[in-house]
Amino acid sequence: MRQSYRMIPVYTADVSGVCSALYELGGMTVMHDPSGCNSTYNTHDEIRWYDQDSLIFISGLTEIDAIMGNDRKFIDDIEYAARELHPKFIALAGSPIPFMNGTDFPAIARVIETETGIPAFSVPTNGMNDYVYGAGIALEEIAKRFVREPDRQENRDPSSRTVNLLGVTPLDFGPQKNAETLKENLQKYGWQVMSVWAMGDDLKTLQRSAEADVNLVVSAVGLRVAKILWEKYKIPYVIGTPNDWLAEDISNALERAATRQAEPAVVYLQNRMQQEADITLVGEPVTMGSLAAGIEKRYGRAARVLCPLKECADLLGEKDKMVLGEEAMEEALKSAGIIVADPLYRPICPGDSIFYELPHVAFSGRIYF
What we know:
Residues 28-242 form the Nitrogenase/oxidoreductase component domain. By secondary structure, the protein is an alpha/beta fold.
């Protein structure tokens, strides 16, 4: 029962993370599911649904097809839609039922790519992981398949400094204006943003990412992409969200990384206050960690982060903690005096705590949007 949730929701699932990450890139994303995953995605997780078109499909998996393993129908439906709509790529995302059936998504993707000539890949989702996992792997596949070798012969201003922002999706950052704010905060310090993975830019822009001087991982979703671009093109990366209070520190870290090929720097964990924290932030580790570092720098009040997401342990500091499950989170918040979190966390917070609302789309969906 420690994994059950009585009062607070769970975070956006990996399947929705795939759809969110690929939404604006001109591909076709297919969820293999009866329809439940699609309804959750379009009614809760996707704030662009009514303003911007995207090719997101549900396979409509039937009981008999699931039992009999009728993958040919799934393949034929995808190929028919692809020939009509001409997507730039096809991404397959699994859900609990095909996961239990052992559906071979990589093989299906190879068949589709062979028969249509359209790049196709699968993301190993099963609805049991959170959005960081699904969105991260989806963008990793884009980096592996579509980023081109840099053209070093281009006429470029040698004084210009270019950076890619990795891990920008509405699930963590909300509407497009927030992504623009991140870019403006870096532009103040002379940085030119070459691409944003993957909100506000198309696939053609992302393909030129290897020409950038350095990468900035602004959320946990972007870490897999940063590692791929380092392995393939030796582009160094820095981790941190350039909010108003931390943008200068991040700019300095980017400069060091770009000029010295320094080791990956987690900016928000540097120069942190060591005393016991009296401010607790709950959420995604990079954005909330950067906010915590900004609070310490601006107000001189120690802060810590409680992270409810998996695969994020390496992004936490000594004072921070990974907390999985409602019961564990309620226990961790018992001693918190000041809490910054999504409003839906309030029911499990101490009644005498001071609570500051900071809505998170990946947790409360469009309720506060």
